[in-house]
Specification:
about 325 residues; alpha/beta; Rossmann fold; 14 helices; about 40% helix; globular
């Protein structure tokens, strides 16, 4: 049996919002559920440690493979991955489960989704937990233009705007790609230094030059866990995941009509000390935009916090849930 089968609840499927979403569910079906939203390049499997801990503590927990990922549908248009579709999937999943409101917890790109949920679907959100990814107010200009000017044309989000090439590079050897990304601590500090092209966070260059045997960072995953990620992206490709990034400009345009604050719901922000992409300093402006906010720091963790420091993350989430959503 694969690690997906031994470490996760049985997969379930929901036809929602024009796609099929695969999801994993655990714990008693009572109270306010916690929906765990993964990032890039990840899967619901990234939450395996949290699913078990939350369920064992008596919480109803739901972790979807989001559109474009894992066992869920992979639409073939870039615009099928904009923020309205991504948040719409989560609202429709609640409809499928007969749930009025949920606590949304998101890491990396999933963090962007969960912070947008109370702006786009406020009636469906009981609380928000951001892991590494802070609430980011709308940029003063197109964020792709800002990133290109600040980080260069090969910065990974800017590079992702190119058609076809990112999928080809990332998908050429998915075991190598996932081994490169999933390291402990996964701060990727080297990526913050300019590459030969002058760009920072130029993952394309780093990946193509990477030699796993010479990488001083410890692997984050066991071989069986790595195989879950590598097999999933080998089978499903990277078009969908990369297309989330290709909607940055579209989402920025959409945000012009959205609220700029989150009030009336409890929010928890968990930062990771060694995350070079989403450093703790990125969360410092959040109190100006969120009325009810707690912020916690996980020391010694890079970017993949729920997998690098699962016990610390579980403790922080459970403590907050016990205080803000007592059973």
């Amino acid at each position: 049996m694969s690690a997906l089968e031994t470490m996760m609840p049985p997969v379930q499927r929901a036809a929602v919002n024009g796609v099929e979403i695969a999801y994993y569910e655990a714990g008693p079906r009572q109270g306010v559920p916690v929906v765990l939203c993964h990032g890039f390049p990840e899967l619901a499997f990234s939450w395996r440690h949290q699913i078990k801990a939350l369920a064992d503590a008596g919480h109803w927990v739901i972790a979807p493979d989001q559109r474009g990922y894992g066992l869920s549908s992979k639409p073939d248009k870039v615009t099928d991955y904009d923020i309205d579709h991504l948040t719409g999937d989560m609202a429709a999943l609640l409809d499928h489960l007969g749930v009025e409101r949920a606590i949304f917890c998101g890491h990396d790109w999933g963090g962007i989704v969960v912070w947008q949920m109370p702006l786009i679907h406020p009636s469906r959100v009981a609380g928000v937990i951001g892991l590494n990814t802070p609430f980011i107010p709308r940029a003063p200009a197109d964020p792709i233009v800002i990133m290109r000017n600040r980080f260069g044309p090969d910065m990974y989000i800017v590079w992702f705007q190119n058609p076809d090439e990112p999928e080809a590079v990332l998908g050429a050897d998915t075991t190598k790609t996932m081994s490169f990304f999933m390291r402990r601590p996964a701060a990727l500090q080297a990526a913050a230094q300019p590459s030969a092209s002058g760009s920072t966070f130029a993952f394309k260059d780093l990946l193509q030059q990477w030699d796993g045997a010479a990488d001083p960072r410890d692997p984050l995953l066991t071989p069986d866990e790595l195989a879950v990620f590598a097999d999933s992206f080998r089978n499903g490709g990277f078009f969908g995941p990369v297309s989330w990034y290709r909607n940055f400009t579209r989402n920025w345009e959409r945000a012009e009509t959205l609220p700029t604050r989150i009030d009336g719901i409890p929010c928890l922000m968990i930062t990771a000390e060694l995350d070079a992409v989403l450093p703790p300093s990125a969360a410092e402006p959040m109190p100006a935009f969120i009325g009810d906010l707690e912020t916690k720091l996980v020391r010694g963790s890079g970017h993949w916090t729920q997998q690098e420091k699962p016990d610390e993350v579980n403790s922080l989430i459970l403590d907050w849930l016990d205080r803000r959503f007592p059973k």
